[in-house]
Description:
By secondary structure, the chain is mainly alpha-helical. It has helices spanning 2-15, 30-39, 44-60, 82-90, 96-103, 109-114, 178-192; strands spanning 120-121, 124-126, 130-134, 137-141, 151-153.
Amino acid sequence: HTTRSLYRTILETRISDDPLGRTDIHSITEADLRAFRERQPGSPATINNILGLVHACLKSAGNHSKIPRPPKRQNPIPLLTPAEVSRVLSYDGEARTLIHLCLLCGLRRSEACGLKHEDREGKGIYIRRAVVAVDGQLVVKGTKTSSSEAWVPLPSSLEFIGSGKGFVLGTESMPLDPVKASRMWDSVRTELGIQGGLHKLR
């Protein structure tokens, strides 16, 4: 059911409100798919999950248009298996919000720590800042690249974002330390029997 929930989240937040979602499935062309791919924010792993669902829908409808894939990384990070995704999405502990921001929204660790409730806009969030440690002090700065500063749709599990003040992870005035975020994930992955750092969720 958790895998089904992930697919439902992708449909609701990435496809239904996109021009592709309003196009007859039998009329979708490779140019439509290329434009859809270019509109998607997030990491290659996140976008691969989205395109995988689109491919399954097209194939089921008898549309054999090819989907452009994100460029392959050198020394790519192994992706979570479907079984691992199910275990992660079933987790309901302290690190749940952090995990869903990385897994379902494709945020980097530093971007998740820098997210504020005020970044909520409509059904999504703007990624405007990141948190890094410099000489033992936390520094809030702009995102890693200009393309990282984007609007990302929110899944239903993160609908509460925007209802509070200050940082989503942390307190009103102090963000969560990215190092602590990694330790939180290490504790969860050990409990769930999953290998890899927090970046594996993206």
